[in-house]
Input
Amino acid sequence: MQSLRTPDDRFANLSDFDFAPHYTHVDDTEGGRLRMHYLDEGPGDAAPVLLMHGEPSWCYLYRHMIPIFAGAGHRVLAPDLIGFGRSDKPTERWDYTYQRHVDWMAAWMRALDLTGITLVCQDWGGLIGLRLVAAMPERFARVVVANTALPTGDQPMGEAFAKWRTYSHSVPEFNAGRIIYGGTSTKITEAEVAAYNAPFPDARYQAGARQFPMLVPDSPDNPASAANRAAWEVLRGLETPFLTIFGADDRIMAGVERVFQRAIPGAAGQAHKVLPDAGHFLQEDVGPELAQATLEFIALGQDA
Output
């Protein structure tokens, strides 16, 4: 598997992003290794808060939330998925599959031997993160899902998603920063737009970002559909505390929070929220509010 590594100078002097990089390696499934980047802030012996990003962002998405969690005494881990951020980027679109993304993240979790995890996941961070919860429930203490889903292809994805997938697949210039801008309600600055584009010096680095929307299960016979159905069977039996926090202005994910609330036992009686003035990338619009709601959720478990 051929891959590219974004030069370090692309990440110098980014807006509000003064965090030290950390790295580990995962099996690329073809006999090689890929370097995965992650942030690791706060006390190393505390139970981890795992922040998982989606498409086409990277751990920069959580820069306003990380200090809040670390300041409250938590260890905060924010990885870059393979193909994004400072992580290595396989060059061919077919290098990226849903299962490989799950396997790469599972390998990273095992390498760090994470347990007692509070998962906060958004967009593809949820599609991957919830598969990890189903595969290794013993490692997770609680789950916060934000503007995400776990589709099986048994229900239509909706017109908004179909338009997004067509756009991501065919647009001549894939501008990650402008996509993030369009998915926020408060709108990010030009410096922040540039930061979201930093991982992609040119189109050769964008295979993963281009391919992600094509991997969402959209039919019952999709390669990932059976695995996601199996994950749902596990999730439907979990008493692990489960909180939904969605953005009111997210048209693609509108109403999906109710699917989780009805299906997962650990969601019963939780203080679920739909936050106003928050788009798909609610970490940009209401990051401190999302962090505070998560801290309150953690505290409930500690007081029980």
About this structure: The CA atoms of residues 26 and 34 lie 5 Å apart. The domain at 3-303 is CATH 3.40.50.1820 (Rossmann fold). The two ends are 48 Å apart (CA to CA).
